[in-house]
Design goal:
2 helices, mainly beta, about 60% strand, Porin
Length: about 325
């Protein structure tokens, strides 16, 4: 970068999502709760994206993006969340790809959300809930973003591209809480496919709902395979993932999901189901989650939605219904 000559004008862009929904949550205990919440279809965020041309074919960039909750005005996805939890990195991009350092998005998360009809919804997407949704039944270690990480993305060649990430443990005298991950994509016409892998060596502080106190030094490995095909009248998605864990009583988790987006009138009907088979998990043997929804775009920036989710594990059932609006800018 220092040897590349004078920089040209800096481009600063603001981007984000405002997503609010209202509805009812009915857990198995039967205590129905009416809510006005944020993030029904996408987690709300606000970001500043900065870039400039260092030299022909080489661009420098920096991204700072924070989550927030528009229903309350609080920052973060939850109390205590990192301020720039979505992204905080600096890097360069050119003909050989893109590299950035700081807090980067986990490639495994990208593969998860791109290959299901409900996208990145932490309220109505069965696939996301079974993988990243939190609690004892969402068993993947690590967040959707990784701090202290270096990320590299390849250019797209003949429909193929890939992303690699490594997060430093920063534990004195030992490798510690290292994270490694990668994904790959292939696209040709209406067909797309992905393969994602990650390995996390974590401490007892990671995923406290899952990890026993002796988890220090344990490793979790995850593999995801996904595919989609756009038939025109129907876009079909499928995923399979295996999470293998050596933490105390925890074993393998196999998850299968299928979903579809069907054009209907001015919008689309969304259908999805995910099934997880928990091997040696103390809190569940299996889990089946199904969703149905309708997305209605009002403009290229604003869309509205209604959705219902039924989440069942070992005879316990949670239900969520809501209507909402999502504004992208």
């Amino acid at each position: 970068m220092l040897a590349s000559g004078n920089a040209l004008a800096v481009d600063v862009q603001f981007s984000g999502i405002v997503d609010v929904w209202a509805g009812v949550q009915d857990p198995d205990a039967g205590d129905r709760t009416w809510v006005l919440n944020s993030g029904g279809m996408s987690t709300s965020y606000f970001g500043v994206n900065i870039s400039h041309e260092i030299s022909p074919g080489l661009t420098g960039f920096a991204n700072l993006q924070m989550f927030y909750r528009p229903d309350t005005g609080d920052q973060g996805r939850f109390d205590g969340d990192n301020f720039f939890a979505r992204a905080a990195h600096v890097g360069v991009a050119g003909s050989l790809g893109r590299i950035s350092a700081g807090r980067n998005t986990n490639p495994y998360f990208i593969s998860t959300i791109l290959f299901n009809a409900f996208g990145d919804s932490f309220v109505f997407s069965p696939t996301v809930l079974h993988t990243f949704g939190g609690g004892p039944l969402a068993a993947i270690a690590g967040d959707s973003g990784w701090s202290d990480s270096i990320s590299y993305g390849t250019p797209t060649i003949n429909g193929f591209n890939a992303n690699l990430i490594y997060a430093f443990g920063e534990v004195e005298d030992e490798p510690g809480d290292n994270k490694m991950g990668a994904n790959a994509f292939y696209r040709a016409g209406g067909f797309a496919a992905t393969l994602a892998v990650q390995a996390v060596d974590y401490t007892a502080s990671d995923n406290p709902g899952l990890a026993p106190v002796d988890a220090d030094g344990d490793t979790q490995t995850s593999v995801l395979v996904g595919a989609s095909y756009d038939f025109g009248f129907l876009k079909l998605f499928g995923q399979y993932q295996n999470i293998s864990d050596d933490r105390g009583p925890f074993g393998d988790l196999d998850t299968f999901s299928i979903s579809a987006a069907v054009p209907a009138g001015p919008g689309s009907v969304l259908l999805a189901v995910a099934y997880s088979d928990y091997d040696d998990f103390p809190d569940a043997d299996d889990r089946t989650t199904a969703s149905i929804g309708y997305m209605y775009p009002l403009s290229q920036y604003l869309d509205t939605y209604a959705a219902f989710l039924n989440d069942d594990w070992d005879g316990d059932t949670d239900r969520t219904f809501g209507v909402g609006a999502r504004y992208r800018f």
